[in-house]
Each structure stands twice: as C-alpha cells, then as structure tokens.
Amino acid sequence: RLYESVADLPDLEYDFLVVGGGAAGNVVANRLTENPKFSVLLLEAGTSNLEISIVPLLVENLLSGPNQFEWNYSTTAQTGLDNRTITYPRARILGGCTAHNGMVYTRGSAEDYDRWASITGDSGWSWDGVLPYFFKNERWVPPAGNHDTRGQFNPAVHSTHGINFVSLSGSRWPVFENQVIQTTRELPEEFPFNLDFNSGEPLGVGWFQSTIGGGERSSSARTYLGPEFIQRPNLHVLLDAQVSKLVGPKTKSGIVSFEGVEFKQGGTLFNASAKNEIILSAGPIGTPTILMNSGIGDKHKLSALDIPTVLDLPSVGQNATDHPMIFASWSVNSTQTIDNIQDNTTLFNEAFAEWNKSHTGPFTNVPVTHILFTRVDANSTVFENVTDPAAGPETPHIEIYLSTGNGPLPEHFITFGLLMLTPTSRGSITLASNNPFDPPLVDPGLLASPVDLALSREAVAKAYRFVQAPVWKDYIIAPTTDLGTLTTDELDVFIQTTASSSGHIVGTAAMSARDASYGVVNPDLLVKGASGLRIIDASIMPMIPTAHTQAGTYAIAERGADLVKGRWV
Ligand SMILES: Cc1cc2nc3c(=O)[nH]c(=O)nc-3n(C[C@H](O)[C@H](O)[C@H](O)COP(=O)(O)OP(=O)(O)OC[C@H]3O[C@@H](n4cnc5c(N)ncnc54)[C@H](O)[C@@H]3O)c2cc1C
C-alpha cells in the first residue's frame, strides 16, 4: 500500500527497509515482496507519481526549472565548463529519475559488463550474467500506432515477459528517418546500420528504443509498483519520508551493523528498523549522502565536519562519473519536424488531442528517430597519452542521437545530441555541513580532463561527417552555429560554454573486488566492513556503461534483489 502519513503505517519495524523509490528501489521492493514472508517498508522522500510525466513528449516541461518534484541541485563550479555552475536535475518523486528522464533505452556494450566482472571478480556482472536481468526487467511491446517494425530491431535480444515496457518509437518522421537510413547506405564504412544496438554490440546506427508502452512513459513507479503489486499486504511504501541517516550503529568483531534509519516527515523525525537488511537505493547522490551522514566515509573529511566515523571508507562519494553532452543543429529544407508542434499552439493542441484520444502521434515519444554509436577514428590522437577508456574494441566512445526540431518557426531544424560515453574525468559527492538535511556538494567533474574535451571535438567532427553523406545535400540549409569552420580554440570555447550533463551520474558507492583496497560495496552489494547494509542503485557501477543508465540500473536492481533473496531464503 501507499501511505502518505507515517501515522497510518501498521508498524515501524520490517524485515527490510528500502530507502528511495527510484529506478532501483521500486524493483527491489517489488521483487522482495514476491515472497509473502518478507515485510518491506520503502521510504521515498518525494510524493506520488506525477500525471503529466506519463505523456512522453512533455518531458521537457518536467525539467524546465526548479519544482517540487525535483531535488533542485546545482553543481559546484565546473572547471571543464568554463567554471559554470549548472542545474543538475534529480527527481524527488516515486519512480525517481524514471519518472522524468528521457526514456531512452540502451544497455551498453557486452564489453562494458565484462569489464565490471573483471573489476569485481564476479562473473555474475558480465554481459552473460546480466542479460537475464535485462530480460527480467524488459517487456518488449509494439510501438504506439503499431507500425510495421520488421527490420527495425532484433527480437532475439529482447524479452516480452518482464515488467518494464520498452518499444520502438511511435512518433514518426519519415523524411528524416529516410535521411538517416540513406546515410548508412552511402557511408556504410563509418556509419553502418545496426539492426539492434541493445544486442551487446552497439556500434552503428540503430532505430530508437524507449521505456514507453502504449504511448505512455513506463516509470518504475507505474510498473513495479503498479496496481497488481501495490496491493500486496507485505509491501508498504511511505511517501514524503526523507531519510537522513542510519541509526543504532553496533560494532562486533570489527563489523558494523545498524538498527534502522532516521527519517523526516512533516518536520518531525521518526525511526524505522530493519530485522534483516537496510537497502540503500537513494541514487548516486542520495546514497553517498546518507552514508556520510551516518559516519561512513573518509574519516578525515567526516571529522572535519564533526561527524564521528563509524566506518572509514574513503571511496564513499568519490568516482562520480557522468556523460557530458553537447548539441549540434541545422536548419533544414523540410517542414516535417517537431518545430511545428513545439512552436505552433494550434498544431500542438491537435497533436495533444490525438494522444489523449488514441495514444498515437508525436506525443508518444521524444522526436529522436535513431542513435549512432561510434568510436574515434583509428588514427585519432585523442588517447595517445592515456589508455583507451573504452572497455574494448566493440565499445563506442561517442553517442549521437538523431532528432528533429530546435525552433523557432518559420525555419525547421534537426538536432543531434552528442554524448561523450567514455569520460576519463571523475567528480564527487561530498557533504557541505553536518546537517543531514542540507544538500550535498555535487561535482560531476564534467569535462574536467582535457582528454574528454578532445573527445568532444571528435564527436563534433563525427556529427559533421555524418551530414556530409550526399543525401543531406539538398536537405540541410545551414548549421545553427557552424562548428565545422571553428578553430580548435573556438570549438573548445563552444564546448565548454554549452556542454551540460546527460543526467547519467553513477559510481559514487562503487563496487570492487572483495579484497580491493578501494570501493564501497562487494560484488554482492553489501557495504564493505558492514553487515545487513546493502546498496542497490546506480551508485554501485564501477565504471559508467556506454549507455543511458536506467537499463543498467534496472539490471543491477533485478540481480541485487536476487542476491538479497538468496541470502534470506
Ligand atoms: C534529466 C535526466 C534524464 C535522464 N534520461 C535518461 C534516459 O533517457 N535514459 C536512461 O536510461 N537514463 C536516463 N537518465 C538516468 C536514469 O534515470 C538514472 O540513471 C536512474 O534513474 C538511476 O536510478 P537510481 O535508482 O540509482 O536513482 P533514482 O532513479 O534517482 O532514484 C532515487 C530515489 O531515491 C529518492 N531519495 C533520494 N534521497 C533520499 C532520501 N534521503 N530519503 C528518501 N528517498 C530518497 C529520490 O527521491 C528518488 O526517488 C536520466 C536522468 C536524468 C536526471
């Protein structure tokens, strides 16, 4: 059941406490309560699901400024971004970032996960190990509008028996789609067609896949806590419950355990306790913040804030990794772009009415048609002084998502989103004070390393080469900003003054091998040096996958839930 007030909860002691109802937390709460013997309390700081968030095209409205469904973070000044401080969206709502994200569904390369397995010494984190968990999460469905999808995906690498809807786009842009597919024919060496970038081999251009079912956003709140699950008598979800810290630390034979958590609702502090385990799923910013507030972290940094150290784990909050993102756009000789809808109230209302009536048309997705995953050229000097950060030769360095629109009318535009998938920069989450309700300092380290800046230049060059295929000759009118003619210095200024985050922060409570001298959790996701305390969310990723991060997080959550169930049979 969903509870808005702590006074309505049947109890304050449960077998499991799950902190954070985002991508991972809702999966864990669902899977643990499949066993009727387990009682679970999930504590979520935000409110219930947001109606507007189910309309895919309206995603921008959710992210357009500070609001009550957000943590409203800003970063520290980013040296790699011309010292800018940028807003850093994180959802504070049931569903977490799956309730406001771009819904892009990409898994990454098989090599990404094989590298996780080699870092952790646990083959369960290899591609072959996690693929069954991608399948357990995913329910592949036909796109909105049900168009013929033959040749647009490979059914063998998808599952129809999971919980979270995934589909090809129901929002169609035939002229632009044809431009893209024709490019793969004209420049097949550099930009080959890839039937399915979610096969573990993402390189090439593939049709866009999203966490959308029947034209509606598929957030973890709507699926894993959907009507068929939320009625379970052993599943309790408390909203508006911000967890500040773990309470009741005890140390036995050098191993720390905790009784439960402290949380705040309506200005009052409460405690809840766990008989079996406390599972932190508060995401890559929330989870390390709770750990440090509880005295788990670097003892020097904790004592500087007068927080007594319970467990000295210097890696807590470190290793923050995100994909920097920039855009390139062009005005085009076609009226078939999303600009019509985004910039013309009558057409907007007509398209929204279509969505309301039949869940078809442009409102069923963002206006992206394909994604290109590509590597820097073999003769590139970008990585001449560093080891190639990609997990292997089949792993991309760059993603370019291909989309219509940029406005304003009367011109029409196309926009490419360029993501640097293998950043070498690392940032951190640290505490600003010893008040657990103060926001932490968020430093995603975007473009902090010159290597990442050089990679961004390569991404721009790739995007410009893509539109040099003959098919674009009469289609493109002019670049919005001509990045192709800038000097290296000018291009660097453009990148540093316009780059932003893709929302993909991971790695702040990273998993490492059991005997490693760094890291926060062991391969079974239990916190090193603690018992009964596990972390199951995107913060445990040891390296960022070359993908948008929700699919990987869902796989972690599905496997994490199995690890917990295996321990408490
Ligand atoms: C703007 C944006 C766009 C994105 N677009 C995409 C995309 O298109 N495709 C994709 O694959 N990925 C995307 N992502 C990333 C993806 O959504 C995240 O990687 C994923 O949701 C992480 O899951 P999580 O469970 O670790 O954290 P979250 O989903 O962030 O969930 C954490 C939850 O914990 C709650 N919480 C935090 N602190 C506390 C506390 N102290 N007490 C109680 N509750 C707490 C939060 O309110 C939240 O509900 C995007 C992210 C953002 C921000």
Automatic annotation (TrEMBL):
Family to which the UniProt record says this protein belongs: Belongs to the GMC oxidoreductase family.
Keyword check for Transcription: no
Record's protein name: Aryl-alcohol oxidase-like protein
Binding site for FAD: 101-104, 243
Coiled coil: none
Domain Glucose-methanol-choline oxidoreductase N-terminal residue range list: 283-297
Record GO terms (molecular function): flavin adenine dinucleotide binding; oxidoreductase activity, acting on CH-OH group of donors
InterPro entries found in the cross-reference section: FAD/NAD-bd_sf, GMC_OxRdtase, GMC_OxRdtase_N, GMC_OxRtase_C
Domain of life of the organism encoding this protein: Eukaryota
Species of the source: Roridomyces roridus
Cofactor(s) essential for the protein: FAD
Sorted UniProt keywords: FAD, Flavoprotein, Signal
